[in-house]
Hints:
Blueprint: H1 3-15, E1 20-25, E2 28-33, E3 48-51, E4 56-59, E5 61-62, E6 65-66, E7 74-75, E8 80-86, E9 89-94, E10 99-104, E11 111-112, E12 117-121
Antiparallel strand pairs: 1-2, 3-12, 4-8, 4-11, 5-6, 7-10, 8-9, 10-12
Amino acid sequence: MKMDFIRELKEWFDKTDLIEIGYRKGNKKIGFVKKDSFSNKKISSNLKSITADEIGLWSFSKKGKKINIKEGDEIKKGSVLGYIILNERVKEVVSPYDGKIKAICVNDNSIVEWGQLLFIIE
């Protein structure tokens, strides 16, 4: 690899919001990781995931009843978080945990696949 190309790639990388980038061709490889890009992230070992156990259309509402949840909300085990709709069948997605919603990983009216991450609970 030419050093001019590497310098140009590094300058471009520094101007982006990317955290890490890698390139490999044959036995030649190069990678950049922004310094301290992970240092202000809190890593927690008590995170739990809620995944889809059906395929269908995700909805935060059912027959006029809207579920208003947001990141940071406290939830109880058994709380209804949303619905997966396939044809006429509606499957409630309930929390198997007590905790706080750290991340909502699904958008209203989007297609979900089996095993897709829906929520992260702390």
